[in-house]
Amino acid sequence: MAASLERRTGAVAFFYWLWDGLDRTIFTAIKFSFPARFVSPFGFLGMLTFVVFVILGISGALLMFYYQPMLDRAWDSVQFINDEVPFGFHIRNIHYHGSNAMVLLAVLHMYYQYFSGRYKIRNEILWATGVILGTVTILEAFTGYDIIFSERAELAISIAASLTTSIPVIGPTMRDAMFGAGFSDFVLRFYAQHVFLLPLVMLGLMAVHFPRFLVFDVPMVMAIGGAILITGGVFPIDMGFKFEPTVPPGITVPEWYLTGIYAFLRTQYDKFVTGVLWPGIFIAAIMLTPFIDRYKKFSWKDRPIITAFGITGLAQVMVTTYWGFYIPADTTLSLVERLVIDPVFLYSVMILMVPLGFGFTYMMIKLAKESERKAKLAKEKGPNKVATINLSQKWINWLLVALLAFQVFLNIAAYNAALTGMKNISLFFIGLILIVFAAFFHIYRYGMNEAKNAPPPPPIPIPDEKPKEIAQEETVPEPGKIPEGEASGEKPKAIAPEVQTPKTQAELGSGTNSPDIGASDLNKP
Q1: Cα 487 from Cα 472, distance rounded (Å)
Q2: What is the three-class DSSP state of 446?
Q3: Which of 350, 377, 387, 519 has its CA 20 to 30 A from that of 102?
Q4: Does residue 31 sit in helix, strand or coil?
């Protein structure tokens, strides 16, 4: 066994010492995979959700330095963070839009797993914990935007308290535990749930939900971070109006992930049925999907009933979400007339949507399956060429240089925007910087993969083959010329004697100046 004379010193030695120590921990049981080529982001939406969760944890911890969870100081402390604290505007916008991004990514991740049938490969526990995790994520976002205690937060808190109280038997006890016995201490309780209790539950669910193999794609992480920053730059979150008990609140709506329930509540039907029972049935139906789906295949086209139910449910959510946002613009109407939705109209539409949406979706899935079958038959009979875009090494280098130059320009622009006080513009430029970095990294990865591929072999030149008639003409010697074989002393090959063919009368008379020749002239000597 040969001994290595190499000695590790400095940072390299520290890194190996740290890695050897982590080898005995649970950290190395989780295998992170860095894809060497572009991977569809739909395949690792769960990992992106976790990345946004980390961003929220960091930005939320920074906001905790200045936030005061007291009823009469909550809104003022957030205003101080937004206007006075250095980079407080940026951190608050990142935290707010990051919470919306996490809810959106969690919903997209759930529906992607649903329509792709990933829960069928012994992932029932992962699916159930994922549905619970998505529900807790919505509760986490809900408590986050309530602790600012604006007019919008007061509306959401009042609705949540009434819904909790409407739960039979345990409702009043839950209400006292979550909101406090009075109106004065709910901010502190929501703050404790938002920064400690719910994140702890989420971490526990993530430990069970995430598989051992996680795909960590650097460009996509930078892209999702850049998208959050760009959204904060284009749509900066405002403070809203501070809630004053003596001032009547204006008309407002909850966040987009709660407006569906808000639409049902605006019908003034039973609160427990519309706000607790129906959402609970919807969540339970999603959770039981792996145990109901008995199809053997994974594709959404091969599971028409399950796919049709999923699309119908998604359509219901989208319609009720829009309905919750809609408020008539006519200010001459009373407050009740603008807020209350006709229950007969709403529930009739929702009931009719179920059979119509399911039937239409089921028919379209069958048509898609048939068109896919015909496309496969046509592909087997036709050419199998697939159009691809292949960049040369020269174009890859030019793209990298252009992106690098654009990156430098964006850094200068973001610095100037920060100096001149344009906070949202600087946030927008920082988001673009991350997006450009993601594109830079992806093109660099593409170029490295192309460099690893062996170049195609050069084409073999094929000699021009002459036609047989031309080749025969070249081999026949001219009259009176000695063949090459005789000149070199070789024995010439036998040549067939030339056969004289008699000329016909038509050939003899082809000339215009020749005299008339009769048949008797042919017999003359």
Answers
A1: 20
A2: helix
A3: 350
A4: strand
